[in-house]
Amino acid sequence: FVLTVLTSTWMIFAATQLFADDFNEKVNAALEMPLTAEFIETPIGDASKIVKMKLGVGFRFHDDVYPSITVTYHAKGEKLKVALKKMLATIRCEYVVKDQSIFIRPIPEK
Predict the structure, then answer these.
(1) How many helical (H) and strand (E) elements, i.e. helices and strands, does the chain have?
(2) Which residues have CB under 8 Å from 46's CB, separation 6+?
(3) Cα-based distances in Å from 28 to 20, 22, 23, 42, 100
(4) Which helix (H) or strand (E) holds 56?
(5) Residue 84 C-alpha from the chain's centroid
(6) How crowded is residue 92: how many other Cβ atoms within 10 Å of its Cβ?
(7) Secondary structure, 3-state, 64-110
(8) How far apart are CA 37 and CA 77, in angstroms?
C-alpha cells in the first residue's frame, strides 16, 4: 500500500512537472515571437491583455507593480522579449518566466 501511494504521488508530481515544463516552453516560445503593437499611456495591465490576445501568453504582476501603471511604447515586429525589456525599463521593471507565465517585477536595487 505504501509503495502504491508513493508511486502514485511520484507519478502525479512527474506529470505536473512535465505540464509545467511544457507550459514554460510555450512561454519561452512566445518570447521569441514578433510583436507589433503601440501603447500610448496604456496601463500595463491592459497592455499585457493585448499581448496575451496576440501571442497567447499570460502575465502576472509582483505586488509592487500595479497594473494601472502606464507605459508608452511602439513595437514593430520586435521579438516579445526585446519589446518587454525596453518597455518595462521605462517603468523600472523587468520580467522573468515563472509559474507558466511572464512575471513582471520591479528591478531589484543594487
Answers:
(1) 3, 5
(2) 67
(3) 12, 10, 9, 24, 9
(4) none
(5) 10
(6) 11
(7) CCCCCCEEEEEEEEEEHHHHHHHHHHCCCEEEEEECCEEEEEECCCC
(8) 8
Q: Are 103 and 62 in contact (CB under 8 A)?
A: yes
Tell me the per-residue pLDDT of 10-42, one tens digit each, with 9 for 90 and over. 444 444 444 445 667 889 999 999 999 999 999
Percent of the chain at pLDDT > 70 equals 79
Are 43 and 67 a contacting pair, CB within 8 Å? yes
Average pLDDT over residues 50-76: 94
- CA–CA separation, 92 vs 110, rounded Å? 13
Q: Could you tell me the end-to-end alpha-carbon distance of the chain, in angstroms, rounded to an integer?
A: 52
